């Protein structure tokens, strides 16, 4: 009989946040696949656990994942952990989970801490109306531009966006957000659950000069901060058609979602957006 792959959430800072169930699973499995065995070793030592660990991270080759799946097939149960929080949520491990499922292995999640949900819960923003998690913005180039395009496309689809950012890139990312979506309200969270935890809520203009120390979780409220006329240049039918194409072809939105997003972004009624798209389609190139 095959074993079980347990996807185990671990604390994002305060070790008291680990669950009794997570500790039991980490104690009982044959092996723990860890993003960083040294980091996980400190956690195990803190709770007196002696389970063996093996390294499994974003640079692990496919052979390592296949090796772990073979152990599962032979009846061993394994745990997958990241350095902090819930594995596969902007952390490595997706490949192993996917291969295990393809092999018919039971995958059992052990829920717990997540920096994105923790920051969202303390932001005061209306997550019940929908939110989107976008991970880390790429460092540069076309991937980074595409990431901000996706961010813009969210307006009108979900009122809240959550993402992570490194401290040395925070200022540049906030400045680009200000240019793209206007002076929206955000929550900046750092050192979550730790001694120097800090969660600050304000507009981008208020927080754009925030002291960048520690990795950040950023929660952006789009729903209550429509762009003013001063924030945006007049939109042409051609440019609107281009953004519509990016939203449907690159970001995966439906036609209706894309029109709704553009409507909210530019303060236009949906029928006006549709009319401009038709105008652009019928204009000579």
Quick summary:
Helix content is 41%, strand content 17%. With 285 residues, it is of the alpha/beta class.
Q: Topology, please?
A:
Blueprint: E1 4-8, H1 20-28, E2 31-34, H2 37-46, E3 53-55, H3 62-73, E4 78-81, H4 94-102, E5 106-110, H5 115-123, E6 131-133, H6 141-154, E7 160-165, H7 170-181, E8 185-190, E9 198-203, H8 204-207, E10 216-221, H9 237-249, H10 255-266, H11 270-282
Parallel strand pairs: 1-4, 1-5, 2-3, 2-4, 6-7
Antiparallel strand pairs: 7-10, 8-9, 8-10
Helix pairs in contact: 3-4, 9-10, 9-11, 10-11
Mean pLDDT: 88
| Unreliable parts | 224-232
- The global form is globular
The secondary structure category is alpha/beta
CATH top level of the largest domain is Alpha Beta
Indicate the percent of residues in helices.
40-55%
Cα-atom radius of gyration: 22 Å
Descriptive labels:
single chain; about 280 residues; alpha/beta; Cobalt-precorrin-4 Transmethylase, domain 1; Methyltransferase, Cobalt-precorrin-4 Transmethylase, Domain 2; five-stranded parallel beta sheet; five-stranded mixed beta sheet; 11 helices
């Amino acid at each position: 009989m095959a074993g079980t792959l347990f996807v185990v959430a671990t604390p994002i800072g305060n070790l008291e946040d680990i669950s009794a169930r997570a500790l039991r699973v980490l104690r009982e499995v044959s092996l723990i696949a860890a993003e960083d065995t040294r980091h996980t070793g400190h956690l195990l030592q803190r709770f007196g656990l002696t389970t063996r660990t093996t390294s499994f991270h974003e640079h692990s080759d496919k052979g390592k994942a296949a090796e772990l799946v073979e152990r599962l097939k032979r009846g061993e149960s394994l745990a997958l952990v990241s350095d902090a929080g819930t594995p596969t949520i902007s952390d490595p491990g997706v490949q192993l989970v996917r291969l295990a499922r393809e092999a018919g292995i039971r995958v059992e999640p052990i829920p717990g801490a997540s920096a994105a949900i923790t920051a969202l819960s303390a932001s005061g923003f209306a997550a019940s109306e929908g939110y989107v998690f976008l991970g880390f913005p790429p460092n540069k180039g076309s991937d980074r531009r595409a990431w901000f395009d996706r961010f813009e496309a969210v307006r009108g689809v979900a009122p809240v966006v959550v993402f992570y950012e490194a401290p040395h890139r925070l200022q540049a990312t906030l400045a680009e957000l200000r240019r793209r979506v206007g002076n929206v309200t955000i929550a900046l969270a750092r050192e979550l659950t730790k001694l120097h935890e800090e969660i600050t809520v304000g507009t981008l203009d208020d927080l754009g000069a925030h002291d960048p120390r520690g990795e950040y979780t950023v929660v952006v409220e789009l729903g209550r901060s429509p762009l003013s006329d001063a924030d945006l240049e007049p939109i042409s039918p051609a440019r609107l058609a281009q953004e519509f194409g990016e939203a449907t072809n690159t970001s995966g939105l439906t036609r209706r979602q894309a029109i709704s997003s553009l409507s909210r972004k530019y303060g236009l009624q949906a029928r006006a957006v549709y009319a401009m798209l038709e105008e652009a389609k019928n204009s000579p190139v």
